[in-house]
Amino acid sequence: MKRILSTLLTALFVTTPALATDILVEAESFETKGGWAVDQQFMDQMGSPYLIAHGMGVPVADATTTIAVPHEGTYRVFVRTYNWTSPWHKGRGAGAFSLLINGRKLSPTLGDTGTQWMWQDAGKIALKKGKAAIRLKDLTGFDGRCDAIYLTTGDNMPPTDLSALTEMRQRLLRLPSVAPSAGTFDFVVVGGGVAGISAAVTAARLGMRVALVQDRPILGGNNSSEVRVHLGGRIETGKYPRLGGLQKEFGPTEEGNAMPAENYADHKKMEIVQREPNISLFTNYHVNKVQTEGKKIVGVIAQNTLTAQPLLFKAPLFADCTGDATVGYLAGADYKTGREAYDEFEEPLAPKQADKMTMGASVQWYAVPTKKATAFGPFNYGIEFTDESCEPIKKGEWTWETGLNRDQIGDFERIRDYGLMVVYSNWSYLKNQYLDKKDFRNERLGWVAYVAGKRESRRLLGDYVLSEQDLVKHVSHEDASFTTTWSIDLHYPDSINGIHFPDNEFKAISKQKVIYPYGVPYRCLYSRNIDNLFMAGRDISVTHIALGSVRVMRTTGMMGEVVGMAASLCKQHRASPRDIYTHYLSNLKQLMKQGVGGQGLPNNQQYNEGGILSKPPTVQ
């Protein structure tokens, strides 16, 4: 029986210690969010999502909620917020907002001071027992952020330490100490991008009861309307041409990065999952804990990004399609980050010494024409432009890439924020100071991503690690599975951009080595030390160099299909992912020949396929 779990909005819960009354309001739980959006990208670093006022310079509509006040009294009010422009600008920041309680505006402006996430003192207010109305009023439209509001009749400051803050949330929100069960499943797929959709649908069509857990309200990952990267690579090619056919059922038929939202066909991705009776879809759930026994995962715990309520997902098999390898990392799976040294795999494109450089994340954007002249800014928060250094364009897509020399997980909020900074700063310069600013007079920002499109972070290690040598020498493997067709496409900081912004480049270049279509070993799709963990997406077992080829989304979708097929065989034979290679490889090959996509559908995925060599290289 199909079940889709709806996320229920709740306001807050209250506890009353002997000497004080404490009330905690998580901003993401506001009943009406107005123009504020829930941002869950940094939950692992700060413990919860937050609300962001992403108005691209235009203040967004107020967020409102109602709380229960159990006791009359004078309450001190603290707001957990962050002055996000502080890494680049000293002084008042861009993301200012106000807090109103029962229509009274508390005196401090919030969100525009300090240098880190902190509890900002918002003053005191007298409240009567009963209900009270809370309102967040955005003042700038420039990504002000509110994590939580804490009201207390006591004298204690709320904690700043993450573990203490987690304990306070657990206590004041009355979260269960033991996560309730989400149900009974054969297979839990974590991550609802193209890889996760493909893995879940494939396994479901082959008879498995599947839970698909996604931390956003929509599916598609980088191919969703939130990030807007078009699909890349070729389907239905190589030894198993039926692989990839599934994407013809849900892949967008429009090409292009940073295009209007409808181009990314979010509804098709949701519909293909909802039509499968064997899939239970859990949107707005972020996995942040993993339970293990020995070398196996026995359960994952996911936190609802709106209510903070936990759910426990148990199954014999799991697939990490998170991109960041979150499940594998929490389970203790072996992984790598950054670039391997040449000596490790003798890859011609590898550096002599290993380092932490990765491909970066893109904050894409575009402007739209207006009938009248429109104002913007000025936005001056530490990133200075000139006529020589500015980008006189009306659209920024994949090349607007940041964080190549930063930690794509631990530093990711700063990486994303720098992407926002340069978009706003550049646009402000074009509108107000550029010599040819008349060319931008009748233009306004139409869309700027606040969910950044990430390319690389952790890569889980399987029984085989795909390298550049496999791709360029066309090394044949008996367990060849999905076919990668994209060139070895690696990104580096743009040296011209670096002249004006040394060590702070916000643009990237691509260096490509074209390959012949290559069958990637199945052994790259399961963990070498966690016995029941598959992976599909950019977190599979490859080197940094090889990731340049396999990371495009049509290719990751085919990975998902193979993982779904292998999972079905694990259920059938009570086997582990490794057993499929050692004992049931012929069965997997048969399934890959058959495919699971609809028969006779026209190939509507023939854009952005990339160039390929006409024949494989001669092996010496």
UniProtKB/TrEMBL annotation:
Keyword set includes Oxidoreductase: yes
Alphabetically, the GO molecular function entries are: 4 iron, 4 sulfur cluster binding; metal ion binding; oxidoreductase activity
Pfam families (alphabetical): FAD_oxidored (PF12831)
Question: Could you tell me which InterPro entries the record lists for this protein?
Answer: FAD/NAD-bd_sf, HdrA-like
Extract the ranges annotated as region (Disordered).
Answer: 599-620
| Alphabetized UniProt keyword annotations | 4Fe-4S, Iron, Iron-sulfur, Metal-binding, Oxidoreductase, Signal
Q: Write the signal peptide boundaries.
A: 1-20
Which PANTHER family did the record assign? COB--COM HETERODISULFIDE REDUCTASE IRON-SULFUR SUBUNIT A, FERREDOXIN:COB-COM HETERODISULFIDE REDUCTASE SUBUNIT A
Name listed for the protein in its UniProt record: FAD-dependent oxidoreductase
Q: Which organism is it from?
A: Prevotella sp. GTC17254
